[in-house]
Amino acid sequence: MTTNYTCNEWLDEADLRLFETMKTQNPRRYQVAGLGEWGIVDGLVYEDWEEKAFSVDEIRGKKGVHAAFGLDFGFTNDPAALFCGLVELATHTIWVFDEMYAKGLTNQQLAKKIKEMGYAKEHIIADCAEEKSIKELQEAGLRRVEPSQKGKDSVMAGVQYVQNFHIIVHPRCVNFLTELSVYTWEKDKKTGKSINKPVDMNNHLMDAMRYGIQSVRKLSSPPSSQAVKGNHQDNYWGRV
Question: Per the structure, how many domains does the chain have?
Answer without folding.
Answer: 2
